[in-house]
User: What shape does this take?
Amino acid sequence: MPGEARKILIADDEPDIHEFIHVALEGANMTFIDAGDGEDALTMARAETPDLIILDVQMPKRDGFSVFAELQKQESTRDIPVIMLTGVGERTGFKFKSEDMGEYLGKEPAAYVEKPVDADKILKIVASLLQA
Amino acid sequence: MAKLTWVSADGVQTRELADITSIGRSRENDLLLRDPLVSKLHARILRDGNDWVLEDTGSRNGSLVNGVRQTRCLLRHGDRIQIGPNELRFECGDAAPFAQPAGVDQSDIDSFLEWDNSTVAGVRESDNDIVPTHTIDVTSVAGLPEVTSPATDRLTLRLKASYAISKAAAATLNLAVILDRVLEALFEIFASAERAVVMLVDADSGKVRRGAVKFRRSLDDTDVHISRTALRQVLSRREALLCVDTALDDRFAAVQSIADYGIRSMMIAPLLFKGQMHGAILIDTLNRTAPFTQDDLELLSFAGTEVAACLTNADLHRKALAAEHLAAVGRTVAGLSHCMKNILQGIKGGAYIVEKGLADKTIDRIRQGWNMVKRKNDFMEELVWDLLNLSKARAPDYELTDLNALCTEIVEIGAGKARNSDVEVNFVADKALKNICVDPKGIRRCILNLVTNAVDACLEGGGNVEVRTFAAEADGMVRVVVRDTGCGMSEETLAKLFTIFFSTKGSKGTGLGLPVTKKIVEEHGGRIKAESRQGDGTTFTVSLPATRLQRPKKGASHAGGSQEDTDSG
Assistant: This one.
């Protein structure tokens, strides 16, 4: 792939997810920044302005939805495409009430990927979002 | 001379009136009526020459004279004064006592003692904030003085029925037991009753089923046949039904079942409370000399309302339990699914990496993927162990154990976990600690959980973990304290600490570690205490009984198999 390597921020408290995504996306001319919790994710997103963010919903310190909402508040991070990794029923209001979701529902993440994440699927989504 | 007469739980009461007689709930009153529906200073009766005047002194529920609310009113002989649930009869002059009143006809007395359902229910419903208390003692009800008036008898019977039902309902939530006791009480009240049946309507299907049956004597034919016609009529019209003599009653001329069983007299009352129909209560007799009367029917209706109220309560309780159960299942399933997804993710991811390594023929990659799969396997094992442990009560498998040695081993594991970090793990053993009887596997699990948590709390900012043992203190408890100088917990987290599937570690924890730890410690008869401040570290204290009656091992004889285990180690 020609051009500069694209920067991907991966925020998940599970190290295995980082390892897995690194391998799944390797060879696609990307560099990775890893965050282990929601606060770290926000700090790194602001400091590094990555080309794409992969956000887990259930993280210590700050959940993925809240990180997404914060990203929308700043000009520099507002337009970064976000892939949300969701667990069980997190989108269907089982864990998060719909009124909690109101703040970010103004703008939805670019894509939702349900765990367990499929390597080919995440590669395809990442590629299409980076092209857009 | 004037007096008031009324019926209380202690029997029929009379009180001569002074020039001023105050009535109310508080002690300073001349006439004390202990009931939540009576105001502290409710009313007073004043003498005005030859007249007597009732004045309401600003009571909450009002004072009624002959059913009409009054603030000030001249009293006449025979007037009925209602104060809360009490009806007081005013008598003056030389008039005869109320058992044989002169100049007052029988129906008037009947209405005086008419404590009808609607009045009682009305009072209760309009005062939702006041719960009527049932403090009647059965002995005092049974010990009511003999009175000749049939009306007073009926009032006494109502008290008796009401008391019996309340008592049955308060004692248990078991519907069968409540109904059985109610029927027993009704047999006592209706001397001629030979059979009593409660039929219940299923709220969902509308089907009618038998709730309880009672016979006074054991009959040859104990099959229960009751008239569907009569029952249907009560359920649909929501009215009580009395049949003084079935042979003479046109309504049941065509009903074979009644004639077949020789039923002479019967009554059925609906079990109706706040518009909810629960079924009906039926009482019948073969006795032709003592048929039921209208009074009996009223009493049965009254009992029916009381029973229906119990059934409504039981329903509410059952629904609340079912909802709570469903919520608990939901929480467990959500927590479990999260753990499972995490495991699946690791296995799927690991397998993907292994496959990629196989394709590229890179042994490092294969190893990387394989390790990921193995980690998830370990996590799964831990999850299953914790779940099984939590799912049932189990007696610890006691063995005489050296807690210091156990802690030394655990601290080594903790130190290994903290090797490449700024975390130090230390152990301070109390040399005076004697061996104690614990389940070594379970307690190892508990302390390892606490040490692992402590190391995790320090990993980010560095810190110290200290494990300390303390020999038995005056309370007979041995202590293991795990203290860390890590990140600490908020009050909110502290409150949820032992809730299953609550974890602050995200994917790293199952959220079962501390609930399991608590359960094991408590199964040992011990206690666990957590103290923490945000940013200020955490201290867990596990207390375990130093002595214990050792359970006999399998195969040991029962006699002499148990012994106090104290200093034998």
